[in-house]
Specification:
Number of helices: 4
Distance between the termini: 42 Å
Structural class: alpha+beta
Radius of gyration: 14 Å
Strand content: 15-25%
Strand order of the largest sheet: 1-2-4-3
Helix content: 40-55%
CATH topology: Multidrug-efflux Transporter Regulator, Chain: A, Domain 2
CATH architecture: Orthogonal Bundle
Number of domains: 1
Order of helices and strands: HEEHHEEH
Shape: globular
Largest sheet: 4 strands, antiparallel
Length: about 90
């Protein structure tokens, strides 16, 4: 893995989320994808759709709001649980 890719995996910061109005852990989109076992592309789709809050660093990296990421994953888990219940 290239040094730049490794740097993206470790970027984390406490930043004031513009939606929640308080400091939250922001993580690099690459790391968010790795943590949630999805592609970085999916993370960016959720950003574009407004499902994830983000902060853009001066060099153009997207840092994703950890709280909105957790909320999105809970929403997906809930949908999966409901669908599983229907098929049982």
């Amino acid at each position: 893995m290239a040094t730049r890719e490794m740097d993206q995996l470790i970027i984390e910061a406490m930043v004031a989320c513009r939606i929640y109005g308080e400091d939250v852990k922001m993580i690099a989109a690459e790391k968010a994808g790795a943590v949630r076992r999805c592609s970085r592309r999916k993370i960016y789709c959720w950003i574009v759709e407004g499902d994830l809050h983000f902060f853009e660093t001066p060099d153009g990296e997207a840092l994703v709001c950890g709280r909105s990421l957790s909320r999105k994953m809970n929403e997906l888990d809930s949908i999966t649980d409901r669908l599983s219940g229907r098929n049982a």
